[in-house]
Write a structure and sequence with these properties.
Layout (H helix, E strand, L loop, with lengths): L2 E5 L3 H12 L3 E5 L11 E4 L2 E4 L5 E2 L4 H8 L14 E5 L2 E4 L4 E2 L2 E2 L2 H6 L5 H8 L15 H9 L1 H16 L8 H4 L1 H6 L6 H12 L8 E2 L6 H10 L4 E2 L6 E5 L2 E6 L2 E5 L1 E4 L3 H8 L4 H8 L3 E12 L10 E4 L7 E5 L1 H4 L1 H4 L3 E8 L12 H16 L7 E12 L5 H15 L3 E3 L9 H22 L1
Parallel strand pairs: 1-2, 1-15, 2-11, 6-17, 15-21
Antiparallel strand pairs: 3-4, 5-10, 6-7, 8-9, 12-13, 13-14, 16-19, 16-20, 17-18, 18-19
Helix pairs in contact: 1-10, 1-17, 5-6, 11-12, 12-16
The structure holds flavin-adenine dinucleotide (FAD).
Length: 457
Amino acid sequence: MRKVIVVGGGISGLTAAHELLTKGYDVTVIEASSCIGGKVSTVEISGVLVDAGPDAFLVREPEMEELCTSLGIAGDLVSPISRSAKIWVDGNMYPLPKSQFLGVPLDLDELSSLNLVSSEGIEIAQNDFINEETGRDEDETVGSLIRRRLGDEVMDKLVGPLLGGINAGDPDRISLNSGVPYLASAASLDSSLIRSIQKFVRASGRDPKAPIFLTHPEGLGKVIDALHKKLEGKIVLNTNVESIFTEETNWIVQAGEKKYEADAVILTTPAYVSAAIIKNSSTTVAELLSSVEYASMAFVLFAFPSSGVLPFDGSGFLVAKSEGLLMTACSWSSSKWEHLGKSDKTFVRVSAGRVDDDRAFNFNDGELVSKLLEELSLTVGLETPPEESRVIRWPKSFPQYESGHANKVDEIQRLLGSETPGVFVAGAAFNGLGLSACIRDGKASVQRVEEYLEVVH
Ligand SMILES: Cc1cc2nc3c(=O)[nH]c(=O)nc-3n(C[C@H](O)[C@H](O)[C@H](O)COP(=O)(O)OP(=O)(O)OC[C@H]3O[C@@H](n4cnc5c(N)ncnc54)[C@H](O)[C@@H]3O)c2cc1C
């Protein structure tokens, strides 16, 4: 029986390990912290389970739902009851256009009626229907495409805040192809960006009323609990892997005094951690891995007494960067999820921090809570003190897929094959950071392990 070690017990590592186990491999997951799940983490606040990391997954990518089905928990999944979101910009709250695709407006008359973008901004966006496409290059940024086709105002007030929210990044630096491949596909059918996306949406034949997101009402930690059961006895906790090296044909994974031997190793740790682990075996791979930049962000989960809070019309709001606020987004969890709306508390989750803004990490928890309460007062007039608040910090948690990312990932894979055969990487840093993409990458790494073991052993 071939032995494979998976380093890191986040969703990528756990799904890779689950797949290996199903295929009959001897597998061990080594996790540094005292629990598995990584970014997937559910906590309790005011007696209710709330997600402290991802709180939903996209339905259009099937892997996470398929995983829930295989774990027997898909029947419990729920979709948001409110779909409409707002945006705080120019000191006012505006509804997001109903007709939009990842923030790209598809009906400029509707956009104009919202008064979110000036009439000059609308005129510039209208040129998208007339101007020939001249500027596309192979690996342009999201910002470059949107600014060229629809103008700066649409970018700064709409698309930027929406897409920046996905990875706490700067859409002017994020690669269109690697960072938002769904938008890249939708943008490739016509020289007009709006017409192209309209064609893409029509061709997809998607029911506009079908759910876009799903979650588990007891938190996505339920998925981790179910995976834990499948991997009973295969997980080693509180074990910080420091390095790997070869001994004869095998790999040795070193964690302090402990050594674990395996035929193959999958590193599913964040890229900068994998870089440190691999650096004695390949400095070139380590350098490439550590060149993936990460953004830090923090959440504050609030539970307010509902008696003192006006209901929010929508699932939450985004904040444009131009406002200079600490908060980047606010999820009005009690309006978004039916199961949270039933409580006598109002649950609100406020995000702070992005790739070029570490202010949240310079405040202690108390300061961060009071700054964000001040901003809730400014944006939604909320003055009631929370019954409970909880700060969750995610330092260096969002990999940034900048221009050149796809080439970098290809080069990492190529060099791993030649310099450290038998060692593989997977996870959020490579081929998508959403939960389904991580599952896909975990499974792809298992396939690479199988191909390697077939050839070598
Ligand atoms: C705040 C936040 C909100 C998000 N929201 C969403 C969302 O709503 N929907 C969505 O689809 N995606 C969301 N994402 C993205 C998604 O959650 C992550 O990309 C994904 O969970 C990452 O999984 P992973 O297994 O690749 O990495 P991780 O979850 O980071 O797992 C890596 C694991 O490695 C362990 N580790 C680190 N160092 C070592 C070491 N030296 N030795 C052993 N183990 C080690 C860590 O403790 C961790 O458990 C969000 C991400 C964040 C940070």
